[in-house]
Write a structure and sequence with these properties.
Two copies of one chain form a homodimer. With about 130 residues, chain A is mainly α. Chain A is built from six helices and three strands, in the order ααβααββαα. Chain A has a three-stranded antiparallel beta sheet. The longest helix of chain A is centred in the last third of the chain and has 19 residues, at about 95-115.
Chain lengths: ~130, ~130
């Protein structure tokens, strides 16, 4: 589980690589890239969803893990939570502006990987054949 | 640990959100976003490093976890491995073109989060105060 205490020590001093231990950005980055954070952000990328709709979109996630992941992302301000005071209450989740920008980056990275999927699979096959 | 079997079922049919279970892209995405994959890719972003140099840049990573993370990323073709036949052999790791593009996306995402760190911390404080 993410603990948010990594430090990647600076490379060349261009000012962009100092990741302070325990700084907020590193902790949030850990929440995003936690086992399920990515899939929750991508799952909400097209619009708000009820809890069970979101759960239905992410194969293999338990109710407990989805709750915990959403709690972290709501606390970080990447996801909002709205409770409709019906009986039973209807709870909806959606991306904030910060969460939406994050999901854009994730989508871009996923697209980059997918665009190179063929080369990646070739490399995997060569790697396995060499062993 | 990543198992690469998530499915985020499609939202609106714009063709970009169908993540097939067990497809190569999802598996690679899991390797990248594994507990340590991100920090290894960011650690190599400025240029190749020896194993122990890389380890020294990532606080908290064990030799075993670094080896396993590198093995996945080499197998995926995101990281290359060069062994200099000295005694003892010197092993160097660096980013391939695919790995470098991935690290660019990660850096962009990390920058986005860092640029919003103040708003994020404010939200966290309000969230905690409300409890």
């Amino acid at each position: 589980m993410p603990v948010g205490n990594q430090v990647v020590k600076p490379g060349p001093p261009d000012g962009s690589e100092v990741f302070h231990s325990n700084c907020a950005a590193v902790q949030v980055f850990d929440h995003i890239t936690s086992r399920w954070g990515i899939w929750v952000l991508l799952g909400l990328h097209h619009g708000p969803l009820r809890f069970f709709e979101l759960r239905g979109r992410i194969e293999g996630i338990s109710e407990k893990m989805l709750s915990q992941t959403l709690r972290n992302l709501v606390r970080d301000g990447l996801v909002w939570r709205h409770v409709e005071p019906t009986v039973p209450p209807q709870v909806t989740y959606g991306l904030t502006e910060i969460g939406s920008g994050t999901a854009d980056h994730l989508t871009g990275m996923f697209g980059w990987i997918r665009d190179h999927a063929e080369a990646i699979v070739d490399t995997q096959v060569r790697y396995d054949d060499a062993r």
